[in-house]
Automatic annotation (TrEMBL):
GO terms for biological process: regulation of DNA-templated transcription. It holds the Pfam family DJ-1_PfpI. SUPFAM superfamilies: Class I glutamine amidotransferase-like. Residues 1-172 form the DJ-1/PfpI domain. Transmembrane segments: none annotated. This is DJ-1/PfpI family protein. InterPro entries: Class_I_gatase-like, DJ-1/PfpI, INH-QAR.
Length: 205
């Protein structure tokens, strides 16, 4: 499983670092997972909301099995974050161009609004931070009240810390429950519920 996390200025620190830590641990454990940071246009760096500088690798979505989009800065409206990226249009356009049958698009928190701007959530079950649910629905998404929502090639998670649950679910989906349990145990983290699957069921763990 090759996961590319899409970075941009003003993203939430934990939206990026949480999934990166989970997936990186899975890779180091020999579970067949790789993770990298990337950004359309190949900028030399991107800075999180908290001031953490990140250095993305070149944009190569065809090399990914999963493109994971963080959120952040959505409520502030101060020129950096999801709202600014939607207005600028570069990230949504690149995500829309990246769509292909064997690619999973995933998001944490208000990253779902970037996927909405890319036109990929219309009529689809999805979730986001609770404060952005109205905007997600207005953009065409069908909100599901769950921690992680898996609708096949679209996997979305709620706010901030749900990125940990999203990443662990991706490990389980691609590499099996034993692999996910191994990473979860090493992290000393307990996944929170619920998980909504494409069949419409809420899975209990």
């Amino acid at each position: 499983m090759r996961v590319h996390i899409v970075v941009f200025d003003g993203m939430d620190d934990l939206d990026v670092v949480g999934p990166f830590a989970v997936l990186g641990m899975a890779g180091r454990a020999g579970l067949g997972v790789s993770v990298r940071l990337t950004a359309p246009g190949d900028p030399p760096h991107a800075t999180t909301r908290g001031g953490l500088p990140l250095h993305p690798e070149p944009w190569a979505p065809r090399d990914a099995d999963v493109l994971l989009v963080p959120g952040g800065g959505y409520g502030q409206g101060d020129g950096a974050g999801v709202r600014a990226e939607i207005a600028e249009g570069r990230v949504p356009a690149a995500l829309a161009d990246a769509v292909r049958p064997d690619l999973v698009l995933a998001s944490v928190c208000t990253g779902a609004l970037l996927l909405a701007a890319a036109g990929v959530v219309t009529g689809r079950p999805c979730t986001t931070h609770h404060r952005a649910v109205g905007d997600l629905v207005e953009a065409g998404g069908v909100h599901v009240d769950a921690r992680v929502v898996d609708d096949g090639d679209l996997v979305t998670a709620g706010g901030v810390t749900s990125g940990l649950d999203l990443a662990l679910w991706l490990v389980e989906r691609f590499r099996g429950p034993d692999a996910a349990e191994r990473v979860q145990s090493a992290l000393e983290y307990e996944r929170r519920e619920p998980l909504w699957l494409r069949a419409g069921e809420v899975a209990a763990r």
